[in-house]
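We store sequence with structure; for instance:
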Amino acid sequence: MVFTEFLDYVGARFGDDMVDDMIDAANVPSGGAYTAVGTYNHAEMVALCEALAERTNSSVRDIVCDFGDRLSDTFARDFPDFYRRANNLFDFLSSIDDHIHVEVRKLYPDAELPHFVVERRTATQLVFLYRSPRRMGHLSEGLIIGSARQYDVTVRVQSDELPVEQGMAVRFTIDLI
């Protein structure tokens, strides 16, 4: 689903010709043929993002973060119960591993999902650790920003990448403002 949504995002933001140009430039093994129920190597997403960044004079970080923000709208539309069952943004973010990812695994058993651990929570701040074998922390940052919009709150997100031997670990500090 993430791959098909990414192609839709690129088409909506940069035009359908850019989708084709990006796929051609990335030279991904799938040829850019993705389905919402398929599972694809995350290296293809990296290659697509790098090709798009090069063609739009943007950073990969900014593209992935912006895509994550837009993806939250898709999740809210397609999976509204995930948002409805949480009273607020912090409840929602705290429920990702224990509820949302459990449900995602039912739909997509082969999905390689990140892991989130809440480290500290107050009324105005949430600190949690993101860990994943893939380097998609910026996608999570965009999803956080977009999810805040779903709860009609404004946040400041600080992300601190932590050293790990494989994959990525990021400590997110989210402040309500």
Summary: The chain has a mean pLDDT of 93.
